[in-house]
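Posting this for the archive.
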Amino acid sequence: MKDNLAFAAHRADPLDDIAANEVDTDGAAAHSSFLNDLQVGLARSQKSISPKYFYDEQGSTLFDRICTLTEYYPTRTELGILQTHAHDMAVHMGPHAEIVEFGAGSLHKVRLLLDAMEQPRRYIPIDISGDYLNVCAQSLRQAYPSLDVQPHIADFTKEIVLAQQAPALGRRVGFFPGSTLGNFEPGEAFRFLRQCARVLTGGALLLGADLVKSPAVLHAAYNDRLGVTADFNRNILARANRELGANFQLHQFAHSAFYNAAVQRIEMHLMSTCRQAVQVAGNAYTFAEGETLHTENSYKFTVDGLQQLAVQAGLTPGPVWTDPARQFCLLWLDAPAHHAG
């Protein structure tokens, strides 16, 4: 599962206002992408849908609830690391830094960095859920009136173009907390880090990652007793019903999450509890009893493996901050002053 995941089928320049007709165009593009990806995914032998579609407003709200659950250790563990080491991280950032947060979510974690930094100048949060992002951004502006907050509604897994830094700004530092890198397939993770090396030229990336640990701990984190994660998982079907006119019967899909140790990842599925047919945009898709819709992978890492991947992507490993139990880590990765392309 992510902890600050942002994908989108629409984009906007982070420093420009979006005209009303552009918003409508982006909304239509998002609808079309969701419909196309769902239909393609349902036609596969292993039915699947990208986890980027979890995060409409309802999904984002449910995920915020997950982050408060006793079983879900990543959020509180990463917050503890930030609380303990934010000053050291801020020293590495230097004065007047600009933060670009990929998958900003509720903008909660970045506050720990902002409080420790020396006169941060600009903050560009990137997220899929535009309404949710804008509300959170306005709250952040009120809390940090001297900070230039420029929300960016975009798909950070695709090419991102950011405006050049103003001369008065310090380093551009990417912030990617919450183990979201684990939601990518290995090739996608490599391409994302390559993009960071380009977008953050001369700056750095502060990357959060969930580490390999006991399968029992992982199982509990994705199968909470209150069923919030199950509701979050099924929300992708509810969203298809709301936005695409599909007719998924939510009570006929069971939440299934398990750790696949051979590939070091949690897999999340929705299992059909009976034989049924689902209609999406006039097309029927049949589920056998026990057949699943694969909704997410969440890879777990070792520090050495992450650092090797970063080097391959053109980043230079620096300090590593972790909790005493080594459940989670935050890595500092320098971006080269001149990107190789």
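Residues 4-24 have pLDDT under 50 and may be disordered. The longest helix spans residues 20-42.
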